[in-house]
């Protein structure tokens, strides 16, 4: 079924891209430590869903069509950058709040909001379009049958699910939570700086 397709190589490339530090891992770490495991897992589910959407789009050539229409890519780039800057602003506000208020507010976050946050974060990430587009263009031969594409999509989805949810479990551990409570303000300031830096980087990027 997978003749001519090097699945381990494809999964290795996807693992490196998904596991490397970026907005997704940053958001999972921030949400898991500040709002707890349930919300971290919900956000990770949203990010995984976004990854599946772009993987399916690339498998069927939709990402290539989007890149051919630069205005679509540019729109996503601006929306993604604005969303990352918004997350940075939220982290700044959290760093400035008194400890008790910040923790109390974190308890009232809806898991649906966390899921949507993860989904929007990944759907507005132009680098996801570029990555999946290049992954399928280089790693998957032309005229690959639909059943083989389905296997690749499912394999990448399963790997993404394990990775992102593993991050959520790691960062929501008791040790991580205690560390966050001790160092809440500097950590929130660090999250804010990282989100803003990612937003500026996306804003300054250009379509290939």
TrEMBL record:
<dbReference type="GO" id="GO:0015171">
    <property type="term" value="F:amino acid transmembrane transporter activity"/>
</dbReference>
<keyword id="KW-1133">Transmembrane helix</keyword>
<feature type="transmembrane region" description="Helical">
    <location>
        <begin position="6"/>
        <end position="29"/>
    </location>
</feature>
<keyword id="KW-1003">Cell membrane</keyword>
<feature type="transmembrane region" description="Helical">
    <location>
        <begin position="114"/>
        <end position="137"/>
    </location>
</feature>
<feature type="transmembrane region" description="Helical">
    <location>
        <begin position="70"/>
        <end position="89"/>
    </location>
</feature>
<keyword id="KW-0472">Membrane</keyword>
<protein>
    <submittedName>
        <fullName>Amino acid transporter</fullName>
    </submittedName>
</protein>
<feature type="transmembrane region" description="Helical">
    <location>
        <begin position="41"/>
        <end position="64"/>
    </location>
</feature>
<dbReference type="Pfam" id="PF01810">
    <property type="entry name" value="LysE"/>
</dbReference>
<feature type="transmembrane region" description="Helical">
    <location>
        <begin position="149"/>
        <end position="175"/>
    </location>
</feature>
<dbReference type="InterPro" id="IPR001123">
    <property type="entry name" value="LeuE-type"/>
</dbReference>
<keyword id="KW-0812">Transmembrane</keyword>
<dbReference type="GO" id="GO:0005886">
    <property type="term" value="C:plasma membrane"/>
</dbReference>
């Amino acid at each position: 079924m997978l003749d001519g397709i090097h699945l381990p190589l494809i999964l290795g490339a996807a693992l490196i891209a998904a596991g490397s530090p970026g907005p997704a891992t940053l958001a999972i770490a921030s949400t898991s430590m500040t709002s707890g495991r349930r919300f971290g897992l919900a956000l990770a589910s949203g990010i995984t869903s976004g990854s599946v959407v772009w993987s399916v789009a690339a498998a069927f050539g939709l990402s290539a069509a989007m890149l051919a229409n630069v205005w679509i890519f540019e729109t996503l780039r601006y929306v993604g950058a604005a969303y990352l800057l918004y997350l940075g602003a939220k982290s700044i506000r959290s760093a400035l709040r008194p400890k008790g208020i910040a923790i109390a507010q974190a308890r009232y976050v809806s898991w649906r909001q966390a899921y949507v946050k993860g989904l929007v974060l990944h759907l507005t990430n132009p680098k996801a379009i570029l990555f999946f587009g290049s992954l399928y263009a280089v790693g998957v031969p032309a005229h690959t049958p639909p059943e083989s594409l389905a296997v690749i999509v499912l394999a990448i989805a399963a790997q993404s699910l394990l990775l992102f949810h593993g991050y959520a479990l790691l960062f929501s551990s008791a040790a991580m939570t205690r560390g966050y409570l001790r160092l809440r303000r500097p950590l929130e300031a660090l999250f804010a700086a990282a989100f803003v830096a990612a937003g500026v980087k996306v804003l300054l990027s250009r379509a290939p």
